[in-house]
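Researcher: Final request for today, and then I'll write up notes for the group meeting. The sequence and the SMILES for zinc ion follow.
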Amino acid sequence: MSEIFLGASPEHIKKERAKARELRKSQWWKRKLNERVCYYCEQRFAPSELTMDHKVPLARGGFSTKANLVPSCKVCNTQKKHDLATEFQPTEESE
Ligand SMILES: [Zn+2]
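Model: Predicted protein-zinc ion complex:
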């Protein structure tokens, strides 16, 4: 089985990143931040500690839609990136 989708085009990522930047300025996103809850660990944070995260990463063909964007604390965000980085290099040799 090699049906795993590994990467979106750079154009897709660029376009969706721009959309995310716009949404970050929106009232909708400000309301999200004011809920002060990380989507992943469900702990409470100051709005300044939350970052915008794509549930389905852009690199995997995700979109910057309201349904795909969630507030994430820095720890969860880093953790998630780390997991994905591992997934992205399945053939990488360790040590
Ligand atoms: Zn978190």
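Model: Residues 89-95 have pLDDT under 50 and may be disordered. Strands lie at 50-54, 69-73.
Researcher: Thanks, that's everything.
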